[in-house]
Input
Amino acid sequence: MTSFVWQRDPEEAYSNPYEYDAQDQFVREASSFLNKCHGYVSNNSKRYQRDDTSKEKAIWMLHVDALDALLDCLELINAKRHRLACRLFRDVIETLDLAAYFNSNTNQSNNSLKRWYKNEIISHSTYRDYIRKTKGDIQAEELKKNFKSFSKFTHRSYRALAKSYVLGGGDCLVYNGHSGSDMLVLPHTIAAYYAILANLTLLFSNEAVNGGTIPKEICEKFWAESLENETVPRRFVPHPPFDKT
Output
């Protein structure tokens, strides 16, 4: 990885938001990689027929949906429309985890796949139960913790909403979308959301390869073509995080 945003902790990014050049490098790299992936999966859009109810088709459809959501997130964050972008974070997680669950190819996941094709909803807790049985309580609880954290964006918790405000005179809240300008959008929020997007893009890359949507050698080629040769250095010495969602 070149831009250090790819490995950046969102809380650290929120506390140290002024690394604009590094963020610009990340945007270039992420845009290149995601668009290359999109071009590849689009060229394979006629692989499956309407009545096909295979595991492979389900995984492919879910990965395409997650990829579209990631591209939407990138566009929205670039435009500082972070209120919409953050609602897609949990969507990406749920979609990729459901594809991973179907890819496990167990009796339970195959039964869930049949229900899914009948338009039933497969809850994220079903995937967490599978992880608990196969990989243990620690990993299952970590999944639950992360899912709960992303759910705060979807369900509009106080701290999630507060990221759309800045403090005016007398510590009064000023909504950063009121004027129709992006001048009031906190750079802290944008920096944190770029870091989250980086984490989700890396997750998509791994899952796309594991699920067979993009062959490993093709995915590695896309990364090699997208990552720049030199890393933009930090401009500021980071200090500890001071805010949590």
